[in-house]
Specification:
- This protein is of the alpha/beta class and 299 residues long.
- The chain folds into 2 domains: 226 residues, Alpha-Beta Barrel (TIM Barrel); 50 residues, no CATH class.
- The protein has 12 helices and 10 strands.
- Helix 9 crosses helix 10 and helix 11 crosses helix 12.
- The radius of gyration is 20 Å and the shape is globular.
- The two termini are 27 Å apart.
């Protein structure tokens, strides 16, 4: 199946010795950070190391379901614009580029104008109340150009700007807006990372909560979080069995008078239910969620 993009793992751009280790976690996406994790004095060196690593890895096969990209500096800054110009000059094609601190659709258009014909999927990170209000226009800014891959919630910067406490209550409105805007535009929605790196149950629980809100992925700041996040997105064996039953019942009814009004176990099944069942069966190709993950064996 295509990359399900359940977990995006950040790795600092100042630590090139960790780049390969990040890929070795099997995270669906690995994002080298050239923004917050890099002091101003090390920006150029981090960019050079990142570009060299991405170019080298593009020449060989990445692990299954892994995509490698990086977060540049804010496109509203000279540094961010220089980052994108350097991408074009190097003819570098990462799996994605994350744009931090996107405030409106204009920021996406600025990035696209710099990239020109050099197409790279973008992830827009929304980190302020204004950005959340503009989520719909941001999500649609690149529609048709196949440029916007996902919206990401920058929850901790948002909490400061919005004067709320980081957490479920303080983030509820913003999460709902971002998830809905992403769904409307048919792009991904990535949640803020968990700060928990020792208790797998907490990471899994936080992930399950945002899955219910419509987030298609969750970011991570430590390799130990990857398995807990990615396993949370897997269906249980019971969910797979029920989904296969629904798909089989719809297939059996095709071309009959019962088509379009199928009942499975006493419940009406229609096209949206069929699509959801199909997604579950596809995810099951990666495994099933039969037990809580453990962080003990993930160094």
């Amino acid at each position: 199946m295509n990359n399900p993009r359940r977990c995006l793992l950040f790795v600092p751009g100042t630590r090139p010795e960790r780049f390969e280790k990040a890929l070795a976690t099997g995270a669906d996406q690995v994002c080298i950070d050239l923004e917050d994790a890099v002091p101003l004095s090390e920006k150029v060196a981090a960019r050079e190391a990142t570009f060299a690593f991405v170019a080298a890895r593009n020449a060989v096969s990445l692990p299954a379901h892994s995509e490698l990209g990086f977060r540049i500096n804010a496109i509203s800054t000279d540094l961010g614009k220089a980052d994108l110009r350097a991408v074009v000059a190097a003819q570098l094609r990462p799996a994605f580029i994350m744009l931090p601190k996107v405030e409106d659709a204009g920021d996406i258009q600025v990035a696209l104008s710099i990239l020109g014909a050099h197409h790279v999927p973008l992830i827009a990170q929304l980190e302020s109340p204004r950005a959340v209000f503009e989520a719909r226009s941001i999500a649609k800014a690149g529609k048709g150009a196949n440029c916007l891959q996902a919206l990401m919630f920058g929850g901790f910067d948002y909490a400061v700007a919005a004067r709320v406490k980081p957490g479920a209550a303080g983030w509820a409105w913003a999460r709902g807006m971002i998830a809905a805007a992403a769904a409307e535009a048919e792009v991904g929605a990535i949640d803020v990372p968990s700060l928990e790196i020792k208790d797998a149950a907490v990471v899994e629980s936080e992930t399950m909560d945002v899955i219910e809100l419509g987030f298609t992925g969750k970011s991570a700041i430590h390799p130990a979080q990857v398995d807990a996040i990615q396993c949370a997105y897997l269906p249980t064996a019971a969910e797979v069995a029920q989904s296969e039953k629904i798909i089989a019942a719809i297939a059996a009814a095709a071309g009959t008078s019962s088509e379009g009004a199928i009942a499975v176990d006493g419940k009406l099944v229609d096209r949206p239910i069929e699509l959801a069942a199909t997604r579950i069966v596809e995810l099951a190709k990666l495994g099933t969620r039969n037990a809580s993950p453990s962080l003990a064996n993930v160094a």
